[in-house]
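Budget justification note: compute hours in this period were largely spent on complex prediction jobs such as the one shown. Inputs:
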Amino acid sequence: MSFIEAQGVEFAYSPEEDKVINGIDLKIEKGSYVSIIGHNGCGKSTLAKLLCGILLPSKGAIFVDGMNTADEDKAFDIRKKCGMVFQNPDNQLVASVVEEDIAFAPENLGLPREEIRKRVDAALATVDMTEHAKHATYKLSGGQKQRIAIAGILAMQPECIVFDEATAMLDPTGRKEIVSAMKRLNKEMGMTVITITHYMNEAVEADRIIVMDHGKIISDGTPQEIFSEVEKLQSVSLAVPQVTELMYLLEKDGFDLPRGILHAMDAADVIEKFMRRQSEND
Amino acid sequence: MTNALELKNISVIYGEGTPFRKAALNNINTSFPKGEITGIIGHTGSGKSTLASLLNGLSKPTEGEVLLFGENIWAKPKEMVKIRSRVGLVFQYPEYQLFDETVESDISFGPKNMGLPDDEIKKRVKLASEFCGLSEKELKRSPFELSGGQKRRVAIAGVLAMQPEVLVLDEPAAGLDPKGREEILGGLTEYKNIYGTTLIIISHSMEDIANYADNILVMKDGEVYMQGGVHEIFMQAEKLFDAKLDLPQITKLFIELKKRNLCENTDVYTVGYAKKEIEKAITSK
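Corresponding output:
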């Protein structure tokens, strides 16, 4: 069984309402870096909450490391395995001093003092905030607050973190800070990272992208595969990165250029090659 | 060119006389031209939102003057209500401020408080909801049944219905999907083009600013760091990076192409224009 597995999952917030999740089967392997994209109201945040057991499916089942999220006895074990970072940094900090905020979860786990100290220091180091340990949380920038929120989850030593639009309220530098933290957690610490985002430039950093529409998964693949299908994405109100769109439009106009280009540097390489080839042919 | 709003020697200082004294804004001098869209960009904590709250007199500067079409808005503090209907302010995440039973009555709240007659209110609600992309059907619903993107539209329509001369929006498109962003920003631009309203938009999205703004004001550490036309600002990549900002992705591509001697022009901010430039470069080689 995969680390996270959803089997025929459906969900509605109340029986009278329409289903928000409409039949999802999904496997997420341990140590993977997955990005979920989709327009507002497509059900991606709901799915994220289902995956960490904050919400329970109306139909079907979700397993985290083999444990059914509907199993009440396992609720705490599942929360320890799978943490979540939300959109608004101001809603997630509970203490007025950075290190106290990070200690909140391990204190609640009833861990001994030394162990808490160790975990707090390690978590601070991971998000590169050690020098802010004694600072007041309310004086930090948005990006710094989000990093503290991440550290708070790291202190619980989860195996998976779900980021629900965790960069939406940040400036470009704050966004870069969080994305590089995600990458580090995944590549260096082997943590499973699931990120929900509207920023396509962020989604391309993942190893796998899942596209949702009307509570269903409509595409699932590598960033190159997903962003090659520009029209399909546009049909579900999504955009592609600017350079991807540019290359797609040029290709459609008859220029022999590859699809699924995601980064400015790659686009520059491809255009350079194309122009060279052309001047040789002339 | 007339300026809708002008800021003269503005400073805002929090905690004056205490050890926590902090200048949120420091000697700001700037202006917002009438009938144009000015984009405000800057890192978190650079003072953008503090600046926005000064523009309709929501907060008072410690020093300096805010001029609305040449008049100091603090000259007659008792008439501030009038100023607030002339300068509309849409906060970050305005959907949290919806309160009424139906979308229609929520949007009517502002014009009602202005003491307008019922038929005028109706007309304004209809107009504002059209520009914000809300249908007749949605007007009858409870705002709390709507999706996040639609709630946002309701909140913006509520301010638009007051038909302010200046509309200040703090991150109007944050958290919306690409189509939602386009609809809201496009709708506002269209409204501005018809009614000559002055728009001031705060955003973290360089792509959105490049697509919609006429002028850009760049804030850094409580000061005006740069100000000018879109091209003028995005030409200065290094300076933007220093202010913890970024360039649109497409502009980065053209800077790289220029480095490699493949393309001359680097003031490219939109995909449509980029396509023309590449085609030109390919055919000219």
